[in-house]
Amino acid sequence: MVIAVDAMGGDHAPEAIVTGALRSAPQVQGEIALVGAGERLEALLPGGSSRPRNIRVVDAPEVIGMGEDPGKAVRAKPDSSLAVCVNLLRDGEADAAVSAGNSGAFMFLAQVRLRKLPGLQRSAIAVLLPGPDKPRILLDLPLPGSTWPAWNTPLLPTRGDPASSRDPRTRFWSRRRAITRRTTPVSPTAGRPTGGCMTPP
């Protein structure tokens, strides 16, 4: 397995990313490809026998900042560390891509260059969280109102019975109020879900 890591993404990159890669290298059964400014990354990595044999550097001269507009940044910086990570995954040179950087740009790149799985209408950012008995998957769901009824109505609890659902493992949160089943599009000011949590089977 090859894991492509955006070494330039995050508030304390690349130092914190390189430190994390070095600590995790002994536990990784595969290769960690640190993607970013080659010379800067090489300077942060130990030399000689102290350097883990499963860490390598992939040069990417450009960086997409945390506050940059995702679409504009992706188009303006084709050789960013984020773009190179996704390209490695697309071209079969990596099995996974990881970034703590601009999530909007990361999602944009993934949708354009990797495409969605068949049957999926909207992409989501998934985070695995610990739970009392099993891990939970937290999904960040940026939904425009016009697509609401098309795909998530079957998952939502019915009005008046928030505990009931077609899948009892699923829970939703809203910015402003509890989520109930809707049959009409959600207006921009209505309480839209910012995430859902599902216990893996």
Major β-sheet, in short? 4 strands, parallel
End-to-end distance: 25 Å
CATH class category of the largest domain:
Alpha Beta
- CATH homologous superfamily classification of the largest domain: Isopropylmalate Dehydrogenase
Q: What is the number of domains?
A: 2
> What's the helix count?
6
From the alpha-carbon coordinates, what is the Rg to the nearest angstrom?
20 Å
Q: Which fold does the CATH topology of the largest domain refer to?
A: Isopropylmalate Dehydrogenase
- Provide the structure class: alpha/beta
Topology, number of strands: 8
Give the overall average pLDDT. 78
Shape: globular
Based on the structure given, which CATH architecture of the largest domain is correct?
Answer: 3-Layer(aba) Sandwich
pLDDT < 50 runs, ≥5 residues: 145-166, 174-201
User: Helical proportion?
Assistant: 10-25%
Strand arrangement across the biggest beta sheet: 3-2-1-4
- Please provide the ordered H/E string of secondary-structure elements: EHEHEHHEHEEHEE
Relative strand content: 15-25%
Description:
There is one protein chain. This protein is an alpha/beta fold and 201 residues long. The protein has 6 helices and 8 strands, in the order E-H-E-H-E-H-H-E-H-E-E-H-E-E. The protein has helices spanning 15-24, 38-44, 70-76, 81-90, 103-114, 148-151, and strands at 2-6, 31-36, 55-59, 96-98, 125-129, 136-140, 170-174, 193-198. The protein has a 4-stranded parallel β-sheet with strand order 3-2-1-4, sandwiched between helices. Strands 5-6-8-7 form a 4-stranded antiparallel β-sheet, with no helix packed on it. Helix 1 (15-24) links the parallel strand 1 (2-6) and strand 2. Helix 3 (70-76) crosses helix 5 and helix 4 runs parallel beside helix 5 (103-114). The radius of gyration is 20 Å and the shape is globular.
